[in-house]
Amino acid sequence: MVNSIGTEEAARLHAEGAQFVEVLGKAEYDEEHLPGAIHIPLRRLEERAFQLLDPARPVVVYCWDYQ
Amino acid sequence: MYDYVPGKAAWMASFLPFEGERGPEMRVGAVAHRDVPTCGLNDKVADLGDVPLVVVVEDDVVLGVIEGDAFADRDKTAADVMKPGPSTFRPPVPVDELAQYLLDHDLQHTLITTLDGRLIGVVRREDLGV
Q1: Which of B10, B27, B9 is nearest to B97 (CA)?
Q2: pLDDT at B15
Q3: Is the ipTM here above 0.85?
Q4: Residue A18 carries which DSSP code?
Q5: A27-64 residue pLDDT tens
Q6: Chain A interface residues (partner B, CB cutoff 8 A)
Q7: Which residues are CB-neighbours of B97 under 8 A, at least 6 positions away?
């Protein structure tokens, strides 16, 4: 189940140590990303999420804007 | 799992910290002049002073701009003479992208606002070296 959240909730989860995942391309991730965010391109999300993410902590995925 | 729908653009425009190769100093928010003159809708043009640009605001939200020949109608109000709904940019826009926009649209300056339209400042061509 995926819950849509806004900036206030995202900032709260970030402060609480949630895992943030940017799903844009590598060049966009390299230019800027949320502090501590990891990079998993959208097309590889299912494959790599199991390898890179801690199932015990909340996960927040994001891209550039409303897409 | 959560989907942060407004995304990176909203995060950065909310002045929250971010990391990466293109730092905050390369964003238009860092070069915006914050001392741009403002007025309210009902202010008389004659009272606006001798300035090249005045931004018309209500509760800090940008409603329009007054510049150039619009200052000639000194007996009218700001609401009468302003150009409503100017295009605006958010602080995280890279300076090179805004420079290209100003060149492409033959503009001398543009306003920088928050996501909800509150005035941050103005960026002029000379601030961007174009």
Answers
A1: B27
A2: 82
A3: yes
A4: P
A5: 999 999 999 999 999 889 888 988 899 999 999 999 99
A6: 1-7, 9-11, 13, 18, 20, 22, 24, 29-37, 58-67
A7: none
